[in-house]
Model the fold of this input.
Amino acid sequence: MHNFDFVKPSSVADAVRALSAEGAQALSGGQTLLPTMKQRLAAPAVLVSLTGIADTKGVSLSGGALSVGGATTHAVVAQEARKHYPALADLAGGIGDPAVRSRGTIGGSLANNDPSACYPAAVLASGATVITDRRRIAADDFFQGMFATALHDGEIITGVLFPIPEKAAYVKFNQPASRFALTGVFVAKYGSGVRVAVTGASANGVFRWTEAERALSASFTPAAIAGLSLPSEGMIADLHGSAAYRANLARVLTGRGVASAH
Amino acid sequence: MPKDGGIGASTVRREDIRFLTGKGRYTADINLRGQAYACFLRSEVAHGRINRIDTAEARAMPGVLAVMTGADFAAMGGNPAGWHIPSRNGEAMKEPKRPVLAHGKVRHVGDAYAVVVAETLEQARDAAGAVVADITELPAVVDMAQAVANPDLRVHDEIANNVCFDWGWIEDNRAAVDAAFKTAPHVTTLELVNNRLVPNAMEPRASIGDYDPGTGDYKLYTTSQNPHLSRLLISAFVMGIPENKLTVIAPDVGGGFGSKIYHYGEEAAVLAASRALNRPVKWVADRSESFLSDAHGRDHVTRIELATDLEGNFLALRTETLANVGAYLSNFATATPTFLHGTLMAGPYRTPLVYVNVKAVFTNTAPVDAYRGAGRPEATFSIERVVDKMCRELKLDPVAVRRKNLIQPDQYPYTTPVGLVYDTGNYPATLDKLIEIADFSGFEARRAESARRGKLRGLGLSTWIEACGIAPSNLVGVLGARVGLYDAATVRVNATGNISVMTGAHSHGQGHETVFAQIVSDKLGIPASSIDIVHGDTSKIPFGMGSYGSRSLAVGGSAMVKAVDKIIAKGKKIAAHMLEAAEGDIVFEDGKFSVTGTDKSKTFGEIAFSAYVPHNYPLESLEPGLEETAFYDPANFTYPAGAYACEVEVDAETGRVEVVGFACADDFGNVMNPMIVNGQVHGGVAQGIGQALLEAAAYDDNGQLLTGSYMDYAMPRADDLPMFTVDHSCNTPCTHNPLGVKGCGEAGAIGSPPAVVNAVIDALHRGGHTHVTHIDMPLTPSRVWSAIQN
Ligand SMILES: Cc1cc2nc3c(=O)[nH]c(=O)nc-3n(C[C@H](O)[C@H](O)[C@H](O)COP(=O)(O)OP(=O)(O)OC[C@H]3O[C@@H](n4cnc5c(N)ncnc54)[C@H](O)[C@@H]3O)c2cc1C
Done:
């Protein structure tokens, strides 16, 4: 790790100001950024910690939606979202291990947009809104491919607003080594229709499986998608699974998600 | 019932108190006054010509004390291969020099070509970034079949076809084996891969070189399983330091699994740097370096054929194997695929004719050497998979076929067609025990229950045998070993009656401090708490060969028992004098020397005291003191054996395999501490399940390691494993060592992979996927799913 300066502002405004400095980078739970720095693959000059800002932490109801602060850890979501949005709590409780969940945050996960991360599936399937220091971004606009998002330089995710579905489920199939999602599917049923988001599978990052959404909006049963399949083109192929395998997983996990939605 | 704390008691591991409270003292915990820090530069290409290494800028960086490159070590000897394996045609094996730091060429990703030494680790790392290496990348050869076939691709310029040796075992039997295949009623053929593994000891390698300019003595603290062997290699072969001027200390070592048997260039580099700078130089590998530069394990590609009659009686077996040795020969790389593999191809069976061919192949990958089980897992996997396949082809019961081919209890000593003499065993007994403890009769009900949950359940079986407790020196000498394989122990009784035992064995997690103390306690009637086990420091211990190949107890423990016997013999002489009796009338029992038939006796403590305060002592005929050293060279290998069963559930839609049951019936001979033996089996089975389902060191075509971190290299974790059922009640004591022990350290890793794979294939067949005859390890969900699809 190279040397760096460290600041821990207590307001979003101060954080935004600190991030405008040359070589500054936001630090949330550090579960992605710190390992990268230890390997000397990243060397920010200033780390701006986002974990000292009280109003970007916690889970609360806001209108009919669940509001999750950007600096809320996975462990807190796993606990506090359970009553309102159990599938989201399940997802958070299945990320990494207890140490990772106690540090890692939703804001960090979404900003990073790892193609195998879990949260992007929940955000996209819920049609959530990502709230930043300067604007509100619809989930459909936020994710822009592997490790790419709509965020501008120095823009901070301060929270996420999740509309609460009637039923939902997240089904994650672990990559055997990292235990990130080899493929994960989030299924959410709203009055207005069903949304299905798939993570881990596509080389373009999280995506919606619209064909399944249509079928499930008509009939929210595993049988409704039994005849559907996803093309292998564009799927990730690596040591842990071929493209065809990931396409298969997305289909199988969607069915299981529908069956277990609660 | 065993005596409390003696042989056979499940004594709690005394060393765990310091390990679990963070008081262990590992090499990285040692900090010497004035120490500097080393950082190695490692090749990023698999194969390249070093044109120039410009160190000027690095040398000028803050805190930098030295930058050394391969050129600085070019005059030194190479790190030698410990076994010479000639080819079938009598040709000597190819032994390219393995330099301390790569010189001229880099030959695998991670091959170290320079080292920077600086005041702090961060400074060393910063300066390493400023070393400019001009390396022309050359085509890499990664795949063994390609390495052998393409004469233009050479890891070492002087070795055409990259073949180290082409070994036949036993060459004289080849014609008879081939003839048997020509007339056999049935031949089963299987091509399989024994996947390459990264050892992943919890503690990465680390070394501190400490040269004393006052005395000219060198000291090396290092992560070694065998400090004397390391000292011999470094002093006599690589650096030319007189052996008596080098002390090697392997303090607490956090696991080795084979990877810390070998001498590595980093050890010589820190010693040389310390000598050059007159101050200690420390290096601790990070995990990425471990992945790239620790000797890997396994990596065989094998074609095996089994000839049988239609009732499944084994008639002949033959195999052809390509064994990857990587870019350089690690110390035991040549022994592992030959004398630890080919000699085991009879397994526990009466196969009358066996022939094994192994070609060792250089590739642009990390060196490959012995890893827990070393050759024997590869042999067992090949045999047990082909036997299972044969049973399926001939529609025979895999239990019945194995049972009728096993060597029978009245056939010992049993000479195999591959050169070993099994001294004792009872393989049918362990098989029967397995069937009982794994509840074979309840399987069908369990399968039906799994089916109700949409899962395919399968039951897999394997039998295994290994030759361990290596080894008779004269025998391994004939087979090509360049070292002896005895071990040694010194038992020092102190004046106050407590005891220090200096052992040549080395504990890097096994629990020797507990078990060895139990044995001495049992033999001398002294509480184990008064006995200390000292290991790992060549300035304290006698010249032993260290720990690997499940040899610590069978060989090192036997040396210790011999030394204890000498103590008792001397004690009797002292007692005879003190008790004014004839030596022949003295008996030693429960810590007391007494005159038979009388109530006259002296305690062990009184005898010890008299040996050191010899006021009333036969000084004219006996030296004072009570300290004895013994060397023990075994008469034969030991042959632990057993039978394993694995139960799996397969999710056919995703290909995911879950191990839901695992049972082991083992014969380890006499068991000294059942709890520790269970732990060894558990750990071994965990690694075996890891190999079968999770682990693989994968290189791409350019020789880049794709699994260079835990993000991609899957280690088994507790929730990947079921509760294990372990039994070692069917034991036949080893006939030729004083404790009757055979060794248990590798068993789990040997017997388990074929049981797991056999179980998965069984599950798929029961589920109607009868086209699947084999899946190469690791059986990842993706591979299992693909096999089902095809
Ligand atoms: C062992 C391990 C296992 C894991 N397993 C999983 C898993 O199963 N599933 C999964 O989804 N993830 C997993 N993760 C990743 C984990 O969820 C991380 O917490 C997450 O990816 C990053 O969150 P963080 O708060 O730690 O962010 P940091 O590491 O602090 O930051 C990550 C990046 O986001 C930027 N950033 C951080 N916060 C903000 C913000 N509020 N606004 C704008 N930019 C920001 C940073 O500048 C940095 O570039 C795992 C991580 C580890 C170490």
About this structure: The mean pLDDT of chain A is 97. Residues 16 and 154 of chain A are 7 Å apart (CA to CA). The pocket of flavin-adenine dinucleotide is lined by residues A 25-33, 50, 70, 95-96, 100, 103-105, 107-109, 111-112, 114, 117-119, 151, 156-157, 179-180 (CB under 6 Å).
